[in-house]
Design brief:
71 residues; mainly alpha; Arc Repressor Mutant, subunit A; globular
Length: 71
């Protein structure tokens, strides 16, 4: 996987789903989401460049992956 930045919401959502498959992303606080994104092995973005809109886009992309995986 290429290096991820805040602009790669869908790829980050997939990576988070793979790392935390049982967590409903809509229950995750943005402070935790920010921390988890910056801790991803492939994440190369600057922590200070995030904002609420970018975190929301990541959360929604992760949620789509999570919904598709539910039985």
């Amino acid at each position: 996987m290429p290096q991820l930045t805040w602009e790669n919401a869908e790829d980050i959502g997939l990576a988070l789903h793979e790392k935390f498959p049982s967590i409903d992303p809509l229950t995750v606080r943005f402070t935790d989401l920010h921390k988890w994104v910056t801790e991803l092995d492939d994440f190369a973005g600057e922590a200070a460049q995030s904002n609420e809109a970018k975190l929301e886009a990541i959360q929604l992309a992760w949620h789509e992956e999570w919904v598709e995986s539910q039985p």
